[in-house]
Design brief:
This protein has one domain. Helix 1 crosses helix 2 and helix 1 runs parallel beside helix 3. By secondary structure, it is an all-alpha fold. The protein is elongated. Helix content is 65%, strand content 0%. This is AAA ATPase AAA+ lid domain-containing protein.
Length: 72
């Protein structure tokens, strides 16, 4: 079964659902929609998951470095 790729409106809705804006931060949804032409729904979900994990990975790296610096 061939499932068509999501149209721009569907991609925007996915980004708004998977990466909601918080506080005063406006996410560049239009930019994301433009950059993901040709992406499947599962591709977009993966991109959003990776984007959400980046701050946690940076925090873990800082904590690990701090741990090494303190000699633990």
């Amino acid at each position: 079964i061939l499932v068509p790729l999501p149209e721009p409106e569907a991609r925007r809705a996915m980004f708004e659902e998977l990466l909601p804006a918080t506080g005063d931060t406006d996410l560049p949804y239009d930019f994301l929609v433009e950059r993901t032409e040709g992406y499947s729904g599962s591709d977009i979900r993966l991109v959003c998951k990776e984007a959400a994990m980046q701050p946690l990975r940076r925090l873990m790296a800082v904590l690990e470095e701090t741990s090494h610096t303190l000699g633990e």
